[in-house]
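Memo to structure team: turn this sequence into structure tokens by end of day. - J.P.
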Amino acid sequence: MSLRERLAQTHERLSRMLRRAPHGVVAVPCALFLAWLWLTTTQPFVRADPDAATVPVPIDPARLEADVRTLTERFFPRDVSSREGLDGAASFIASTFVDTGARVEEQTFEVDGGGHRDVQGVTFRNVVASFGPSNDDAERIVVGAHYDACGPHPGADDNASGVAGLLELARQLGATRDLRTRIDLVAYTLEEPPFFATTEMGSARHARALAKKGIRVRGMLALEMIGYFSDAPDSQRYPHFAVRPFYPSRGDFIALVGRDDDAPLARTVKSAMLGTGAIPTYSMTGPFTVPGLDWSDHRNYWGAGYTALMVTDTAFLRNSAYHTDRDRPETLDYRRMGAVVRAVYAAVIALGR
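Reply from structure team:
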């Protein structure tokens, strides 16, 4: 949909809302508020980047599916209590990263169990693949995805899809020459409960380590569920009624989600992703209090002083299989997942210019 068509669609939605308003006195401030909300949350005037990069290696949907199936079937379960699954997944990710030519290292740590005695003394692992300049203090771009799952569920969309996207991004970057900016791809552990929103999350460990070393991060992207799409009417829901008029009712797009402070990063990423023409891309940046803005690993980079966005199919707001046994590989759309990876690759290259 073109910018003009989106503007017309939004105008029509606002008009319908105002026609239902009981009094003109209410309608005017309501219109002003909605116009302000639309402008500040959606970045509606972002233009597609004509220089959006093309991937150096063709993205094969079957390769994405194979990686998702490996994580969900071979390394199952992958929750905090399933060390064999977590360790197997970490080793698989590290081996795949090595095959792409990346410089690979692991960040290992133990956690304060917080009442979970079964994790006391257990070593957990983030896996990091680096491309481009090799100096340890180099400014960098970070793209991450968590490989653990919630409970004894397959976790195909949440978040084998994000990890498969990360592995495919590594293949693309491994085939890219003359990267001028360091790019770190990080596979995190312990994103899911019981450690979500705690300082024990793998991404919290990684973000704090970067900040402690004074490393500059140009931007961080968290791949959080990127494989579920629907063309059915009203298949997309939103965390707050006020933003519904600004976005599609069909779950056929990918979303960029962050705070007000992340709006400049969102504009650059969105421009590059739109420039590929690969997948419809929408953005939402707003006050930290808006529900859903911090529902993944990007939240921990905010606390470390970095700008960060979530790249997502919007999780349970679209996918009813979220955190259930029905979140299986056969429910995902690997063609459109490949389109997301292609668009994210373009965004990473644009950020690295």
